[in-house]
Amino acid sequence: MHNRAVFVASGIGLALAAVSALIFNEQPKAQGPLFSPTADPYAHGIYSEGMIESSQREGENINIYPEVPGPITAVLVGEGQKVRTGDPLLTIDDSVQRATTDQLRAQAAAALAMLSELKAEPRPETLAVSVAQVDNARATLKNARDQLDKEQRSYAMEPRSVSKNDLDNAINAERIAATNLEVVEKQLELTKAGAWIYDIENQERTYTALEQSYRSAAALLAKYTVRAPSDGVVLTVQATRGSYVSTQGAYDSYTQGYDPLIVMGTPQSQLEVRAYIDEILIHELPDTSQMQAEMFIRGTNQHVPLTFVRYQPYISPKIELSDERQELVDVRVLPVIFRLDNPAALHLYPGQLVDVYVRAR
Fold this sequence. Notes:
Layout: H1 2-25, E1 45-54, E2 62-64, E3 70-75, E4 82-83, E5 88-92, H2 95-120, H3 124-157, H4 164-193, H5 197-222, E6 225-227, E7 232-237, E8 244-245, E9 250-252, E10 257-259, E11 262-265, E12 270-278, E13 293-296, E14 303-311, E15 316-317, H6 319-322, E16 332-341, E17 353-359
Antiparallel strand pairs: 1-12, 1-17, 2-11, 3-5, 3-8, 4-7, 5-6, 7-11, 9-10, 12-16, 13-14, 13-17, 14-16, 15-16
Helix pairs in contact: 2-5, 3-4
């Protein structure tokens, strides 16, 4: 009985081993490629790597850097948002600059008030005082002359009726009153003349200098609000509230370098492709009137015809694609810009790498 059980177990083991061998030796069916490899659509085409960009007359994208440093207090836009020229994008702490601007504005206002005061002279109340002083001096002089006339007539009738000292005092009083009248009359003329022209010119220059200082401070204050330089779309936002930024941009802890606070592109109904043609293939490019090109989207079978826009007539190192600024092999390329309509189904974005074929001569 025991030997029979052993034979049965051995048979089952052999059967399982045979089934396992069949299963594991079966080769899985190979899956087909998800997309066809990129193929040259021309009989003789020039291959290049390309990068999608916003469609604009010059440059690539709009890199926005702050003109003043400081901590960010608010980020007012998001990535993908459409903006118009002058729309605020973000704000930087302006408390110190705002206080300085307010101080200069107050000083300019005070200088303007002083200038207006000088131009408004004579003040009616001051003129009235000067006129009253003249009237008082004339009355005093008349009284002194009347007293002197009395003393002189009495002395002429009877010299002993008036002492020599009283007569001299009356003469001196008349002279003093006449001199005082002359002084207050000149003071009245000075009051009527108003402020001295040199005082006005000096105050005008003081006001102009303070007003210009205020305008300069106000212009600097406005730079603490970063605004959109043109209509477009916000592509990237590197700024966050509370982070400190400088005129070099925002520090990126991943790349350990400085990036623009905001990168903007034009409205993306149309895009451009910057194809980098190897310098050894430039001689094979056709005339601009005969330029034909196709763009292939990596990872798909999609391809889009391109329209030639312009050359960037400067041979540059290929660091735009590799971002390697210390390459051992100095590969140089000629950027050629093409334009394409942006079909919504393709999901194309600035910064995307694509394959470009240009029909050779």
